[in-house]
Specification:
621 residues; 4-stranded antiparallel sheet; 17 helices
Length: 621
């Protein structure tokens, strides 16, 4: 039995085209992929690089990512592996933004590239292109006498036995029309030139991949540098948060220096790439047949060993082979590698989630990462982050011990094109790499996908937006909720105390609404009065409403607890933050509630890229 992680349902049979990482096995016995990799209960169905999906239950095919994405995929995988290993070494809440180790490893020329640059500078490859070694090939052909320059061996015997080649016959002999002639032709398809042509192909692909990798890193660093300097379109708190996270990897000066190094490396790689492309347009490369390939091991001929120019081909070939061997894996090793990547991406998603929840913790500055999850109080309830195999859940439990899942995060390491996957529950988010399709104008996409990537500077803001929205909806829907069946004594206490924070509704029996915060003295007095009148349920309800209002008073932007809340007509409110000047409103129109945030800087647009997790979600239903 397979379990579809996206729609959270069991399926009896897989589709013909399988998306890697989407399905988990929950059968009674183990499964096996392509006869080499067992899949135990709870294990993910990931690929082995072949595209085949031969299982005991049937034969299917994996959907593979496009080949032009390989560079971005390798960079992404390198980043999450680096972060995952850092989390294994120390359970600290490290930055989920692109690690410095990844940037450092890519920002310098590789040994192969340094060797290639030196070889190109000395002109060895150009010299081979201009003055190549060649062989002479001799062909025999029956041709017109006028074309023949040298007779082939046995030409007279051939002429004597083929009268159709005679022009005429005379008394003195035969005047030939055609003869068997020997022609010589320069042959450029020698082994050493085939090595030269195939080496250019391999170097072309390698340099193209490296250039794409550095361009991706360059884009990320340029975006970070823009955020450092953008004080007009971004809210300064969003700018501070992103710069603080990025600062754990690079500060502004280090970012500029690294960017300059990347640009220098990129220019050198582009120069080498241009030289290789020009050599591929030269006569020698075009004269070597495209279908002529070099076998597994390079055959060391005398020319490759001793020629002053050709010997550099063997050196470059060996260095390139050594570099490529690092990423060569068998099918079973690839399957295991994909499983490890899925686990690393799950840890990375949990890291981003725990960053996003920090503002609700009592001690957010401890900076600890909890691999299994964490639990903390919120109002009169408890919020719990728990890891469930590869998934993460944010649960809310009240005093009645009922548990509500506010967020079910499904980390899905998938680089294929987006396909329809059926309905997803409202509290579910599918975390996926997104690569270059990161959406900056809204936090999550319409199909419940959220971009979680080390290259996305807004990844924490995306999850933070969803968490804030879910928790604020609870607070806003409970604001001014009536506490019914108030006994006479507490009702008289409210009338006598003239507490403006409470609205007493003169019904039978009376009801009350908590509209503003109560002092601890008044709150304790009211609770004692309710309990003495045997209204423990109402006492608990009043305490819940007050704690929720106190949570509402905490400013979303600066997290100040000194915001002033004023109730407004129709069970609405206005909250003014005395620290940052942010204003929050809730307006009630019948059954519809609308929420609005106004920033002190009115020039800030209501866009996700400008306001981050405070992006507007006005209609609460």
């Amino acid at each position: 039995m397979w379990f579809d992680r996206l729609i959270q349902k069991k399926v009896k049979e897989l589709p013909g085209l399988v998306e890697p990482g989407r399905f988990q096995w929950f059968g009674k016995s183990s499964e096996c992929l392509n006869g080499h990799s067992p899949i135990q209960a709870g294990g993910l169905l990931v690929g082995d690089g072949s595209g085949r999906c031969q299982l005991r239950s049937g034969s299917y095919s994996f959907i593979l990512p496009k080949k032009d994405k390989s560079t971005d995929i390798d960079l992404f995988n390198n980043a999450i592996i680096t972060i995952g290993k850092q989390l294994e070494e120390k359970n600290k809440l490290i930055s989920p933004i692109l690690p410095a180790a990844v940037v450092d490893s890519e920002s310098h020329l590789l040994p192969l590239e340094e060797l290639l640059e030196e070889t190109l500078d000395k002109g060895h490859l150009h010299q081979i292109s201009r003055n190549p070694r060649l062989d002479i090939r001799y062909d025999e052909e029956v041709t017109d006498v006028a074309r023949a320059k040298r007779l082939a061996r046995g030409a007279l015997v051939h002429l004597a036995s083929h009268s159709e080649c005679w022009q005429r016959q005379t008394l003195s002999g035969i005047v030939p029309k055609k003869v068997k002639a020997r022609f010589s032709e320069d042959d450029f398809n020698i082994y050493e030139n085939i090595v030269y042509a195939r080496l250019l192909d391999k170097l072309d692909r390698h340099l193209n991949k490296r250039i794409n990798t550095i361009e991706s890193l360059n884009d990320t660093l340029e975006q970070a540098l823009e955020i450092y300097t953008d004080s007009v379109t971004l809210h300064h708190k969003v700018q501070d948060k992103i710069c603080k996270l990025w600062g754990q990897t690079f500060d502004e000066d280090a970012t500029s220096a690294t960017l300059a190094l990347l640009v220098d490396t990129l220019n050198r790689l582009r120069d080498m790439h241009l030289c290789i492309r020009n050599l591929k347009q030269s006569s020698l490369y075009l004269l070597v047949a495209r279908n002529d390939q070099v076998g597994g091991a390079l055959h060391r001929t005398n020319i490759l060993n001793h020629d002053p120019h050709y010997r550099h081909l063997a050196i470059l070939w060996d260095e390139l082979t050594k570099h490529q061997q690092k990423s060569v894996r068998s099918s079973s090793e690839t399957f295991q590698y994909q499983k490890e990547l899925s686990e690393y991406y799950s840890r990375f998603s949990g890291l981003v989630l725990q960053h996003a929840i920090q503002r609700y913790l009592d001690e957010p500055d401890k900076g600890e990462y909890n691999p299994a999850g964490l639990s903390f109080d919120w109002t009169d309830k408890k919020l719990t982050i728990v890891k469930d195999k590869y998934d993460w859940k944010l649960d809310l439990s009240g005093p009645d011990c009922q548990v509500e899942t506010l967020l079910h995060l499904v980390p899905w390491l998938n680089f294929t094109e987006i396909r329809e996957h059926g309905a997803v529950s409202d509290n579910a988010l599918i975390a996926w790499p997104a690569l270059h399709k990161t959406i900056t104008d809204r936090p999550i996409s319409s199909n419940h996908r959220v971009a979680i990537s080390p290259m996305d500077l807004y990844c924490i803001e995306r999850l933070g937006w969803f968490i804030d929205k879910s928790l604020n909806q609870i607070l806003l829907k409970n604001y001014a909720a009536s506490v019914v069946k108030i006994p006479t004594a507490p009702a008289n206490w409210i009338k006598g105390s003239s507490v403006s924070s409470i609205q007493l509704i003169d019904s039978h029996p009376p009801e009350l609404k908590v509209l503003k915060d109560l002092s601890d003295v008044n709150l304790n007095s009211l609770i004692d009065c309710l309990k003495s009148s045997n209204a423990k349920v109402q006492a608990k309800a009043v305490e819940m409403r007050v704690m929720e209002i106190r949570a509402l008073r905490v400013c979303n932007v600066c997290e100040s607890k000194l915001s002033r809340l004023d109730s407004q007509k129709g069970d609405g409110f206005r909250i003014d933050c005395t620290e940052c000047g942010t204003q929050r409103y809730m307006r009630v129109d019948g059954d519809s509630r609308e929420f609005e945030i106004k920033f002190s800087n009115e020039s800030i647009s209501n866009s996700f890229s400008a306001t981050g997790r405070w992006y507007q979600y006005s209609n609460l239903g």
